[in-house]
Specification:
By secondary structure, the chain is an alpha+beta fold. Helix content is 18%, strand content 41%. Residues 1-17 form the signal peptide.
């Protein structure tokens, strides 16, 4: 293990690459390939989320994305990448045992859309497009490792709109990135999704600060939750329990039962002793 780490540091020093202190992100420059435009650099990122920025791309970079723990569950992970809208200068492929499959062309990256693939499909092979002037070109994206179920939901038009089962509701309260009780104030259609403005009266949990406090004297929070456009959510329909995941800094709706329905379900499960976790409903 120590020998591998020292070798990685040596390779970085030679190519002037820069890893973040937690080795979740990488920043490199194609200028180190000057005179060697066919160079291929290996990058190793072992976090659940991070970023890559490649300045003045020349040659190619192979990005190996792996979780930082060894577990059989790792084979069921998916990788989601979100290119910067300014990302340019390369085509991105999936490399599995030397066989390349195109994932994103240069023009596709400018849309800034999230693209997901199974971790078993291989590493990312980022190939620079040969040009005489590379000075204004930067390839950049964020990445996240998610379980295959979340990937399937994000790619299935109907899945996010289907009501959750009772078991899914109870589990969501225990495991999701955010859990909050509140009302829908407004729904704004956006390209391929809706932005649901909510006002929160009780915040049980949030992974990052997607909901903003109204202040010390005002015990309420506000924020926006994303949903697929086809779900046709409406405002002004009572109080809900919002649950969901955070993807690339944005809250995405999961199970969202009416609060009174959740209370009934929770108390019934409590009597039966089948609640997966405790929720303070006072």
């Amino acid at each position: 293990m120590l020998a591998s780490f020292l070798l990685l540091l040596l390779l970085c020093r030679i190519s002037f690459c820069q890893y973040s202190s937690d080795q979740c992100s990488w920043k490199g420059s194609g200028l180190t390939h000057e005179g060697h435009t066919r160079d291929v650099e290996q990058v190793y990122l072992r976090c659940s989320q991070g970023s890559l920025e490649w300045l003045y791309p020349t040659g190619a970079v192979i990005v190996n994305l792996r979780p930082n723990t060894v577990s059989p569950a790792a084979a069921r992970l998916s990788v989601c990448i979100k290119p910067s809208k300014d990302s340019t200068g390369t085509n991105i492929y999936l490399d599995r045992s030397g066989k390349l499959r195109l994932l994103l062309r240069e023009q596709d990256q400018a849309q800034g859309k999230v693209h997901c693939f199974s971790i078993r499909e291989g590493a990312l092979f980022i190939e620079a497009i040969p040009r005489t002037d590379i000075s204004r070109r930067i390839t950049a994206f964020q990445y996240e490792l998610v379980n295959d179920r979340l990937r399937a939901e994000s790619q299935s038009p109907g899945a996010p709109c289907q009501p959750c089962t009772d078991a899914e509701m109870l589990l969501a309260v225990c495991t999701n990135d955010f859990v909050a009780r509140g009302i829908i104030k407004r729904v704004d259609p956006e390209e391929e999704r809706s932005s649901v403005s909510v006002e929160i009266s009780r915040l049980y949990r949030q992974k990052i600060h997607v909901f903003v406090s109204g202040g010390v004297r005002v015990r309420s929070w506000t924020g926006n939750i994303k949903m697929p456009l086809q779900c046709r959510v409406k405002s002004g329909e009572g109080e809900f329990l919002f649950t969901g995941t955070v993807r690339f800094g944005e809250a995405w709706m999961g199970c969202a039962p009416r609060y009174k329905d959740f209370l009934r379900l929770y108390h019934e499960a409590q009597v039966q002793g089948i609640n997966p976790c405790h929720v303070d409903t006072d």
